[in-house]
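We emphasize that the prediction below concerns an isolated chain of 158 residues; any contacts that depend on oligomerization or on bound cofactors are therefore not represented. The input was used exactly as deposited, without trimming of termini.
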Amino acid sequence: MPRKKTKVLQRHIQPDRKYDSVLVQRFINKVMQDGKKLKAERIVYDAFQEVERRTNQQALEVFQQAIENAAPSLEVKSRRVGGANYQVPFEVHGNRRTHLVLMWMVQAVRGKSGQPTSQRIADEIINAYNETGDTFKKKEDSHRMAEANRAFAHLARF
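Result of the prediction step, given as a C-alpha cell string:
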C-alpha cells in the first residue's frame, strides 16, 4: 500500500451543445440520474429558457454569476488530533468550489416538490443570482462554521 500522495488525473469534460460551456455540462452531469443525459439536458435547457424569460438577461451570464455568488471560500474538515476530532477551517480552491455549488444546487432542487424540475432549477439559479435561497444559505452556513472554528485553523497543516 503506497503512502505517497499521487496526483489524480482530472477527466476532460466536453462543453455542452447549446451554450458551448463546460460549466453548463458539469451542471447537466450533476442533474443527470440513472444515465439519462438527454433528459437532464432538456431539463437544464428548459430551466435556462425560464431564467432568460424571467430576468431578461442571458441565461449563461446569470448562471455564471449565480455560481460565483454561491461559491464558498471556506469549508470545515474533520481532523483527528490527540484522540479528539476538530472541525478545522480550510480554504476552498478552484474545481472544488464549483463542485460544491453545483452539488448544493441540485440537492436544493431535489429537496423541493410541487413544480417541474426545470422550474425549480430556474428558481434556484435566480435565487443564487440574487444572493438568496437554499444554495446561498448553504454557503453562509459553511462560512459561519469556518468562522466559529477559526481557533482550530492552526491544525490545518497536519
